[in-house]
């Protein structure tokens, strides 16, 4: 019997594995949430597939997404990253990652965990949308608009509403699996 997935995930095994094992599954631990914030911010203007193919390189290059270490990166580390062909070499995005690691920790101090802060925007549980087709999946919502606005107010960078909505999908705050997908929560 053929497994039915969301159409975007059928590019190759890497995409299928990501779709089946991660996308839309709720994430509550700060470390993984931060990883996706980094990856999504680098994805801005590029395809998610490009980022997914480079994910392991990002992980190695950015100290396994340890936000405490990243928050302390100095210019020499920025230059090292700018010379790293295994990642997206964009100075503004690298600097934004360092900034966002610092802001991430500020939010943790205020709310106890970043997870508690971000999940408050959806009432602590996933929003399950049941789209019939990929065309029914929005690029942004009122919630992603509000979250992006709040993140910006807190000093985060490269996290506009479209990037934030993609993050919400990746971390299961929103479940946008199409109704006939085997991962759908119908």
Mean pLDDT: 96
Sheet with the most strands: spatial strand order:
1-2
Q: Regions with pLDDT < 50 over 5+ consecutive residues?
A: none
Largest sheet: 2 strands, parallel
Number of strands: 2
Distance between the termini: 19 Å
Q: Give the H and E element order.
A: HHHHHHHHEHHE
Number of helices: 10
Helix percent reads 40-55%
CATH class: Mainly Alpha
Within CATH, the superfamily carries the name Hypothetical protein, domain 2
Structural class: mainly alpha
Query: What is the number of independent domains?
Result: 1
CATH architecture level-2 label: Orthogonal Bundle
CATH topology: Endonuclease III, domain 1
Rg is 16 Å
Proportion of residues in extended strands: under 5%
Given the C-alpha coordinates, what overall shape results? globular
Catalytic activity: Hydrolysis of alkylated DNA, releasing 3-methyladenine
Pfam families: Adenine_glyco
GO molecular function: DNA-3-methyladenine glycosylase activity; metal ion binding
Protein name: DNA-3-methyladenine glycosylase I
């Amino acid at each position: 019997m053929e497994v039915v997935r969301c159409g975007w995930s059928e590019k190759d095994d890497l995409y299928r594995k990501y779709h089946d094992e991660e996308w839309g599954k709720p994430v509550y631990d700060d470390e993984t949430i931060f990883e996706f914030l980094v990856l999504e911010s680098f994805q801005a203007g590029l395809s998610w597939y490009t980022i997914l193919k480079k994910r392991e390189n990002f992980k190695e290059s950015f100290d396994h997404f340890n936000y405490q270490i990243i928050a302390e990166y100095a210019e020499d580390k920025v230059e090292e990253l700018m010379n790293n062909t295994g990642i997206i070499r964009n100075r503004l995005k690298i600097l934004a990652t360092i900034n966002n690691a610092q802001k991430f920790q500020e939010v943790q101090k205020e709310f106890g965990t970043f997870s508690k802060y971000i999940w408050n925007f959806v009432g602590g549980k996933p929003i399950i949308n049941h789209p019939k087709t990929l065309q029914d999946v929005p690029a942004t919502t009122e919630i992603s608009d509000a979250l992006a606005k709040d993140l910006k107010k807190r000093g985060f960078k490269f996290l506009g509403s479209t990037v934030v909505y993609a993050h919400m999908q990746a971390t299961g705050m929103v479940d946008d699996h199409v109704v006939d997908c085997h991962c759908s929560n119908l």
